[in-house]
Amino acid sequence: MVEKAIDTRRIKDARGKPVSLLDPYALNLLRQYQVIQEETLRRIAGEVGLGLPTWQRRAYFAAVTAFLGIWIFLFTWKAFRGSTFDTLACVLGSLGTVLFAVSAIIFWRGGQRARAKLVCAIMLKYLRCPHCGYDIRGLPTAPEDGATVCPECGCAWRLDGSQGAGDHGNG
Question: Measured between alpha carbons, how far is 108 from 98 in angstroms, rounded to an integer?
Fold first, then answer.
């Protein structure tokens, strides 16, 4: 099976195994409390929130504003210049649309990566397995690499924060 070069829905555990990420925010919205108790899940989901850094939300807002500004300018230009678009308007409209589409894709991918790292770090902070949500509090660490292995799913996590939890694989 061939995997994508960068899959933002997957993270790597402490031993480099790519695993899928549990989304506590979605679980809380759907009121799915089978894996994590309701109060704990609400606290985790509250910390995760939308999971995007402020700079990324602002940059996306700026891109949307610029896109809308270009189109408002073009339609204003059309109203004052007559009923047809001229070459400058067509070039600006096309360029604005392409730039908006490219920036939306870049911000979407970057946002997914940032959110995956955030979710993983917060789940480990609450001593929950980021893959399955199992409570990994009090479990022993493996002597060879210092990772705590989740008995539910077999994923390994370093709870001291030094692993770079949520690193994305290229494989």
Answer: 15
